[in-house]
What we know:
By secondary structure, the chain is of the alpha/beta class. The chain is built from eight helices and seven strands. Helix 1 packs across helix 3, helix 2 packs across helix 3 and helix 3 packs across helix 4.
Amino acid sequence: MDLQEQYLRELKKFFWENxxxxxxxxxxxxxxxxxxxxxxxxxxxxxxxxxxxKIIEHHIFISSFIAEYLPVKxxxxxxxxxxxxxxxxxxxxxxxxxxxxxxxxxxxxxDAVKEFINKLKLNNLVxxxxxxxxxxxxxxxANSFDLVLSRAxxxxxxxxxxxxxxxKDKAYIATMKGGDLMDELKTTEQKYKAFIKKSTLFxxxxxxxxxxxxxxxxxxxxEINK
Length: 226
């Protein structure tokens, strides 16, 4: 069995066991993305070497799975600190009507992400090598997004500060994290209470290997009014 077929089987197992039914075309693209990351990871550290064996569960599937918790009305997202394209690329495959900007300050990683986007023919994505707090980036993308995504790249309070110039008047911030988040959430809510309409903490439990969220995966979702 080649790697593409192996990844496709793993993806089908995770999606079907959690009563999710992406079409075959989407599953094929997700499997292809996993192969591309695996190949690139031999030269460029996009994900940890020990995690490459769990790429489907820990990176591809979970990045798609969060779509179940994101607002349906969101149409344009920014993925801050995307690294190898997570969660932005799997999300864009799963939710093809959404448009996204994937940004990372490491140019080599963004070069890889651009290559992935091109090979996967994802016309709904662009990639930018920049710091989101840079003035030129803020000017280019001011008030552009109704959803901010991030995979535990920075503390929530800093992610909020980065997000404010970039989001529309009504928007959402979603970040994937582990551990005890109550203090982090409380600190952010105290500083930015004038902007936060609602905050929700989701436990990202899924079958078969994390049915009680033993792996402590969480999604923080903030609804924002500027």
